Amino acid sequence: MTFEDLFIKDQDFSKELENKLLPFMEETATDGYLESNDGLKLHYQYFLNPKERAAIVISHGFCEFISKYAETIYYFYQMGYSVFMIEHRGHGFSDRQVSGFSMVHVNRFEDYVDDFNLFIEKVVIPQSLTERLYLFAHSMGGGIGSLYLEAHPEVFKKAVLSSPLMELNMGSTNKFLIWLVCMLSYIPFIGTKYIPGHHDYDHKYKYPHCSTMSKARYNFVYNEREEEPHYQSNGASFRWGREAINVSKKILKNAHLVKIPVILMQASLDDLVTPTAHKEFESKAADCKLIRYEDCKHEIFNATDDIIFDYYKKIMDFYE
User: How far is the first Cα of the chain from the last one, in angstroms, to the nearest whole number?
Assistant: First the structure.
């Protein structure tokens, strides 16, 4: 089977979601929980392919969850890969460190990396059928994945970083305000408050003013969030903001430690992460190729048909 045979066009997505993607997820997933080093329950699923060519581990983005990646998981599985995915702390059915489901909070960005490493050691390596692990990491998950590749350079054979968080796009925000956010986050009762502009989940339908270009795919994710409170992660705490701001220096400082083949996928209309950090990472990593999509928003896998097809085709060819 070729990827051309698998690809789902935007006009067919809603039908194929019901006929293929959701039944596949329900029938194929193995569901479980893992305890983090600091006692949090972390939710994961894996999709074990009996003819596994390699195992792909997915690291998702800010406010995301496993079912959002149903299409991605389906494609990888049908192309011969097992797929493993953990919901990062503060997301999906994994435990939070603050009350409610809306706020995303983390004490240290490295906590995500430690959780991810535990998942790989306790679940991925014991359950996968081969010794070949590939990384697929998007946005915040790309920041987590980048730090992981630097700290554990021998674990993955190849990596795809999709619109990775290597530096937040602050736009025209005053540098003093950025500094102030970082400083205020150290005050205990402020560190777990929302940063300016962030708030509880408000049920608003935001298409087309969002990071997604495919309306059908946006509708699917929106409906998932409406129906399941665990999927209603929505805004960042001061502490998360500080950690996301500071992570750029850590990633770029150690980019030279990444020796494996990497493709870094970048969107020209991305208003969440900056392209300059991507270029610096590409120049420092040993074997990194930057691929840029013009007229494309942050979620490249939820863009227009031509972009989505080319995106996945390049990834499949790379993993091949």
Answer: 13
The residues, any chain, with a CB within 8 Å of residue 84's CB and separated by 6 or more, are 44, 45, 46, 47, 55, 56, 57, 58, 119, 123, 124, 127, 128
pLDDT tens sequence across 148-196: 999 999 999 999 999 999 999 876 566 667 677 778 777 878 889 998 8
Q: Which residues have CB under 8 Å from 38's CB, separation 6+?
A: 111
Q: Is 145 exposed, middle or buried (0-12, 13-18, 19+ CB in 10 A)?
A: buried
CA–CA gap between residue 67 and residue 87 (Å, rounded):
10
Average of per-residue pLDDT values in the chain? 95
138 three-state secondary structure: strand
Q: Which of 170, 181, 198 is nearest to 239 (CA)?
A: 181
Give this prediction's pTM.
0.96
Q: Output the domain CATH number for residue 236.
A: 3.40.50.1820
Helices H, strands E: what count in the chain?
Answer: 13, 10
Q: Which domain holds residue 315?
A: 3-319
